[in-house]
Amino acid sequence: MSFVDQLNDYNWDDVRLSIYSKTERDVQRALTKSRLTLEDFKALISPVAEKYIEPLAQKARYLTRQRFGNTVSMYIPLYLSNLCSNDCTYCGFSMSNRIKRKILSEEEIMTEIAAIKKMNFDSLLLVTGEHQAKGGMDYFRAIVPMIKEHFHYLAMEVQPLSQEDYVELRALGIDAVMVYQETYNRVTYAKHHLRGHKMDFEYRLLTPDRLGNAGIDKIGIGALIGLDDWRTDCFFTAAHLNYLEKRYWQSRYSISFPRLRPCAGSIEPKSIMTDAQLLQLICAYRLFDPEVELSLSTRESPIFRDNVVPIAITSLSAASKTQPGGYANNTPELEQFAVSDNRSAPEVIASMKGKGLETVWKDWESVYSG
Question: Would you give the distance in Å from CA 242 to the centre of its chain?
Answer without folding.
Answer: 16
